[in-house]
Design a protein that fits this description.
CATH topology of the largest domain: TIM Barrel
CATH superfamily of the largest domain: EAL domain
Helix content: 40-55%
Shape: elongated
Oligomer: single chain
Strand order of the largest sheet: 7-8-9-10-11-12-13-14
Number of helices: 16
Largest sheet: 8 strands, mixed, barrel
Low-confidence stretches: 1-23
Length: about 425
């Protein structure tokens, strides 16, 4: 079974977001260009698998063809062996004059009067399939020059097909890796970065951050990025959110209720899963953090999905404010309870008047709209001092506390 066929079967059996093997316009345009240049009625690319030709691309002169994309033509090993070993010519100006062609199933069942065919080979030399052009009538003007054009383009097509198959294989590998992570009985490791109220330096809550031990070893954002590429980001977020809430429950039981910030994509919220996830937890102490990097397709739909969560008391924060244009759109359309200043804005804010001016504007905006400001990435006493002076409500960062397991966070609380 070829790689393409294997991946197509995975697609048909429900693997998420597996795409067709080659969808680029360049392949279709190449087939159309050659067919038109050689003035043939039909041009097509086929894949050879288990004695069958599977039609992958078709170009026609007048919009009609006896072969269509996804057609399967049973030819048997005999046909392909003859075609590849040269028993059947790749150049046939008149199929009626070639007994071998007339004797084969393809010549009897398809109205082929003239024919050009060259193999398409993978880089390892194995056969992918064929690139063919044919006319319904004989065409005496076909010659070796035309066949050479076909061969050159077949090499180009092979390069494109191999590149697309590699991309598709990589996508399939990613999907399997993320599915295994989601389906694993082992929960992701969760660490919590404490947030302190700057007025009196009391703990007000923590942000939950997922860590993954699985191979390959890499940062959490890479795992979530890969999950997003294969359409599984929401499922991975849900697993991380459940784990974060379950572990934080012990802290809620042992003392005053502190906020828990959970990173949440707009997609997870819009799909309506958050109400189920927070069931049984103190909703009024949960903050859903929407990052600047997450795209909101429709703010009306997003606000509609947020409404029942807000009715339960859930708070909304816009994360990474100041890092880009999207955070401003999120703030204006979502009207959050908290705005979290991005580390790019808080870093060196005590010595950079531009950062200070932008932060001051956001802080004044928060004061006018009853939206509390939280500073992220605070690393120096100077930064914390100026943030307190500007009126920032709370802060987190390595100066105040690194992300730690829930057991170590208890020590801060107690």
């Amino acid at each position: 079974m070829s790689l393409h066929t294997q991946l197509r079967r995975e697609e048909l059996t429900g693997s998420p977001n597996i795409m067709h093997a080659f969808t680029g316009d360049c392949v279709e345009r190449a087939v159309e260009l050659v067919r038109s240049r050689l003035e043939m009625d039909v041009g097509f690319i086929s894949e050879w698998t288990d004695g069958n030709l599977f039609i992958r691309h078709v170009s026609t002169k007048d919009g009609w063809s006896p072969v269509q994309v996804a057609d399967s033509i049973a030819l048997g090993e005999e046909y392909f062996k003859k075609a590849l070993e040269g028993w059947l010519p790749g150049l046939i100006p008149d199929t009626a004059a070639v007994p071998e062609a007339m004797a084969l199933l393809v010549a009897r069942e398809l109205p082929i009067g003239s024919h050009l065919s060259v193999p398409i080979r993978h880089r390892n030399g194995q056969i992918y399939g064929t690139f063919c052009c044919f006319n319904f009538q004989a065409k005496a003007s076909l010659d070796e020059h035309d066949l050479q054009i076909m061969k050159v383009v077949a090499d180009f097509l092979a390069y494109q097909i191999d590149a697309d198959l590699e991309r598709l294989q990589g996508r399939s590998d990613k999907a399997k890796r993320i599915q295994a992570l989601i389906q694993s009985s082992e929960e992701p490791s969760i660490v919590y970065q404490p947030m302190f109220q700057l007025s009196d330096m009391t703990l007000v809550g923590a942000e939950a951050l997922a860590r993954f031990k699985e191979e390959p070893q890499r940062s959490p954002d890479k795992w979530f990025m890969e999950a997003d590429e294969v359409g599984l980001k929401t499922q991975l977020e849900i697993k991380a959110a459940r784990s974060a809430l379950a572990r934080y429950r012990s802290l809620w039981k042992r003392g005053p209720l502190h906020y828990l910030g959970i990173n949440s994509s707009p997609q997870m919220i819009t799909e309506g899963r958050m109400l189920e996830i927070i069931e049984g937890f103190p909703a009024e102490k949960i903050i859903l953090e929407i990052t600047e990097h997450d795209y909101v397709e429709n703010y009306d739909d997003f606000s509609y999905a947020l409404a029942p969560l807000r009715q339960r008391g859930v708070k909304i924060a816009i994360d990474d404010a100041g890092a880009g244009y999207s955070s401003m759109c999120h703030i204006l359309n979502v009207r959050p309870d908290f705005i979290k200043l991005d580390i790019s804005l808080t870093r060196s804010i005590n010595t950079d008047r531009w950062r200070r001016a932008l932060a001051r504007a956001l802080i004044e905006f928060g004061q006018d709209t009853d939206c509390k400001i939280i500073a992220e990435g605070v690393e120096t006493e100077g930064e914390m001092s100026i943030l307190r002076e500007l009126g920032v409500h709370a802060a987190q960062g390595w100066l105040l506390g690194r992300p730690v397991p829930i057991e170590e966070l208890w020590r801060v609380v107690l």
